[in-house]
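Q: Could you fold this chain for me?
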Amino acid sequence: ATARPSSAPHERTDHFIFRLRVTMFACTTTSLTASAFAPTMPKTTAARRAPAHARTTPVRTHARLDSGVGCFGSKAGMTQMFTDDGLCVPVTVIGIREGNFVTMVKTEATDGYNAVQVGYDVVREDKLTKPEAGHCKKAGTPPMRHLEEFRLGSAPEHEVGARLVPTEMFKAGDKVDVRGATIGKGFQGAVKRYGFSRGLMTHGSKSHRQHGSIGAGTTPGRIYPGKRMHGHMGNDMTTVKGLTVMRVEDDCIIVKGNVPGKKGSLCKVTGTKIVGKSDGGASKAKKSQKVVVA
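A: Sure. Below is the predicted structure, expressed as C-alpha cells.
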C-alpha cells in the first residue's frame, strides 16, 4: 500500500498558528463579555463581611416593583352577581383571614431598597420556626404563616405593627392585580400542555398524541433551549391584571372574573400597575434600583 503523503511542514505550522489565533480571540471575547456584564463585587473578604451600612459597592438589579402596598387573601371560590343593569357577572370571592399586619419596613438607608413586609394568616406559634415566631413577636404581631414584601419605588410611610384593612384600601369600581400560584396539573404531554395537534387515530397511524420531531440530527445535532416539550404543568406564579372590584367587605374582596389558584390558595391583591402612573414610583426613580451587596 502506498503511504499517505504528509503535509508540508510550513502548511502544518500555518494551520497551527491559525487555530491558536482563533482560540486566543475566543478567550479574549469571552473575558471581555464576562467582565462587561459581571456585577461589581467587593474584592476583599473584609469588605464582603462588612455591615450593610458600611458597604459602598452597589450592584444594579432589576427589581419588580408593586404599584403600592396591598393585602393578602385566600381564594374562596367563584359565584355570580347581578349588576344594576341586570347583567349576570361571574365573580371570584377572595376571603380575608385574620392577619395583614405590617411586620417590617425597609428603606434604602437601612436595607438598600424600599419595601413593606406584610404577614397573613394567623396560626399557632408552634406551627412556625423559632426565628419566624421571634420575628413576629419583635414586630408586635401574632404569629403568621405567610410573610411577603411589597417592593416600592419611594420610601414607605407605614408603621410596624399596623393592620391593613381592605375596606380602607379598595372600593367598588377599582382596578386591581391579583397574583397567585396556578393549579398544578402534574406531568403532562405536549398536546395538553401547549395545545399541539394530535396525529391520526386510524389508518394505521402509530403517532396519536406523541410529540413528534424535536430537531435535526447532524445539524445542529442538539435541541434548542426553550423547546416546547412534555413536562411539569401548572403551579406557576401568575398575575391577572386589571380586575374590577365589585364589592369590598372586612372579610372578603369580590372581583370580576377569575384569579389563579384553587380554593384556599394564597392571593396577593394590589392596585393595578400602570406604567408611568401607578408603578410604585418606578417612573420617577430609576427602573433598576441599587441594592447593597449582601
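A (continued): The helical segments are 9-37, 45-48, 108-111, 130-139, 166-169, 190-194.
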